[in-house]
């Protein structure tokens, strides 16, 4: 397998999550993007512990598209330092993998 990844990022608003998800799908950079939340995130930022409500996006895509996905998210994201993490998809059903290929081919 090894050709596919799931990119994870978070947003303060559902509207921002949907806006960037739409852009990624329109550009064929993500085959499917799931938006989960609201959820609570606890983290340290500039020396202070913060607690905020966020929405999590899971972007299913091809590993070869990571840099373009990252650039698109970073360019549209309202956060100064957005979470953009790629996780390998170790296995996927062959039909789903073929569908991901189809939806992320330009």
Structure description:
By secondary structure, the chain is α+β, with helices and mostly antiparallel strands. The two termini are 21 Å apart. The mean pLDDT is 96. The chain has helices spanning 14-26, 66-76, 94-103; strands at 4-11, 32-45, 48-62, 85-88. It has a single domain (4-103), classed as Alpha-Beta Plaits (2-Layer Sandwich). The chain is elongated, with a radius of gyration of 14 Å.
Structure, briefly:
With 106 residues, the chain is an alpha+beta fold. Helix content is 32%, strand content 39%.
Q: How far is it from the N-terminal to the C-terminal residue, by CA?
A: 21 Å
CATH class, please? Alpha Beta
Low-pLDDT parts are none
* Percent range for β-strand residues: 35-45%
Largest sheet: 4 strands, antiparallel
CATH fold type = Alpha-Beta Plaits
Q: What is the topological layout?
A:
Blueprint: E1 4-11, H1 14-26, E2 32-45, E3 48-62, H2 66-76, E4 85-88, H3 94-103
Antiparallel strand pairs: 1-3, 1-4, 2-3
Q: Which keywords apply here?
A:
4-stranded antiparallel beta sheet, elongated, alpha+beta, 106 residues
